[in-house]
Amino acid sequence: MRTRSLILLILALFFCLSLFFQLTLERARGEALSRPPFLYLPTGRYIKVLSLGYQNLAADILYLWSIQRYSRYEGEHRFRYLEHVYDMITDLDPHYIDPYLIGALTMAREGSDYERAFKLLQKGMRNNPDEWILPLDAGFYALMDLKDYSKAIDYFMRASKIEGCPPEVDRLIAGAFLRKGDKVASLKFWLDIYDSASNERIKEVSYNHIYDLKIAIDLEVLQKAINHYKEKKGKFPTSLSALVREGFLKGIPVDPDGKNYEYDRNSGKVSAASEYRLRH
Amino acid sequence: MKVYPIALNTFREAIRDRILYLLLFFALLMIFTSRIASLLTVGEESKIIIDVGLSAISFFGVLMAILIGITLVSREIEKRTIYNILSKPIRRYQFLLGKYAGLLLTILIMDFIMTLGLLLTLYFKSGRFELHLLLAMGLFFCELFIITAFAIFFSTFTTPILSSIFTLAIYAVGHLSWNLLALKERIASFWGKALCFMLYYLLPNLENFNIKNEVVHQLTIGWKTVLLAIGYGISYSVVIILLATLIFQRRDFV
Description:
The complex is a heterodimer.
Chain A: H1 2-32, H2 44-50, H3 55-70, H4 82-92, H5 97-110, H6 114-127, H7 133-145, H8 149-160, H9 169-180, H10 183-195, H11 200-233, H12 240-245, E1 262-264, E2 269-271
Helix pairs in contact in A: 2-4, 3-4, 4-5, 4-6, 5-6, 6-7, 7-8, 8-9, 9-10, 10-11
Chain B: H1 3-14, H2 18-38, H3 45-78, H4 81-86, H5 92-126, H6 133-155, H7 160-176, H8 178-186, H9 190-202, H10 212-216, H11 223-250
Helix pairs in contact in B: 1-5, 2-3, 2-5, 3-5, 3-6, 3-7, 5-6, 5-11, 6-7, 6-11, 8-9
């Protein structure tokens, strides 16, 4: 009995000792974490060879590890090897979509490195041409973060051509065209959305956009013709019908409610009689 | 048919081996705990379970084939039971074929249990049976045809420890042999190129059976590819078993 108690005591003592070593090690490692740990990480090509056919598992392990690493807001050099890490994961498993999305998200939103985020998403698009989520994601960064509307339109258009892409992407394209300043292209997309609307709510929203865009485009056309008239004749036209009579316009448009546009011959300004439904 | 009783006896002997259950336990543990690991991901959790599960089945399946395969013949020699068996009207190739078939049956059952474990884990996660994984398991079983054949081949002329090292080496080489073609392109010398080319076709190409990636991402796998891989697995293992028979014939047990 005494021997047994002695063994238990020694056991407890050594367990405490191992705990002490473990805790000391953890503290030491904590300090080591502030140093860049990826300096010797090989490329995905080499890991693929070393994985002996288990490259999917290797990609999963690296991906899980990257999520744990980048979910912590510590470390001075957190983003230095971000591209390398996600390149490695996507080299190991090029069809694994999540790392492209999460890698791009971390690069763009956390590391403010949009160039690399687009590079990663483009790699994903090359490896997975049937995945609409990748160009859609790239389009979002271009639209929302960079305000690069041409780039956003390119990506959204690419996504919309892929089977299974939600039809809502057309609304994003229409919105991006409007922000870019191309009201005519935006109107074309809203007309298509209106024609193919699957419910009343979409029909109503798209009609409101069409309504406002029609007024905005008409006012621009009329104002341009008035200014042209002023340049040629040295004075503003007496009425809008004078523009048609003298060949500056083919016809006078009316707003979507069928009302005529109002014209002030003194200031040469044209305005809508109807109110905008949204604000363009 | 003299192969059948030897196969049955090998099967009975193999399923009594404790190491088999130890490996099965760890494989199932890895498969079930993959559900916990999947919680750490952002995105598709099932992918992690499938990857870990398929890898566990493949890794432990190979270990089972090697650790049991290498002792099958050597144990008979060590215990001198081989003298009893070969004194009966049994040809040596029938003895080896029986051992091979018995071991394959054992591994097939173990693989079935591990696959069932994976399918159930996925069922509890997603509520459906991911039966497309069976194709990957089927081809993996073809890979085991070759590994098991090599384990028996080595055990006919060397010790169990060396057999296990050689078979593990064949497993590693089999998954790396595609690099020989890449190496061939980089070598300038004609003889170097010829050696790479020869080794590439001489060594087993176990990557032919690796369709884990295609199965996980549900990519199209041509039936032609599957059938050709099965054909390759069967014909290559026949070659190895025949080589094992040739060596085994020359051994003196009288």
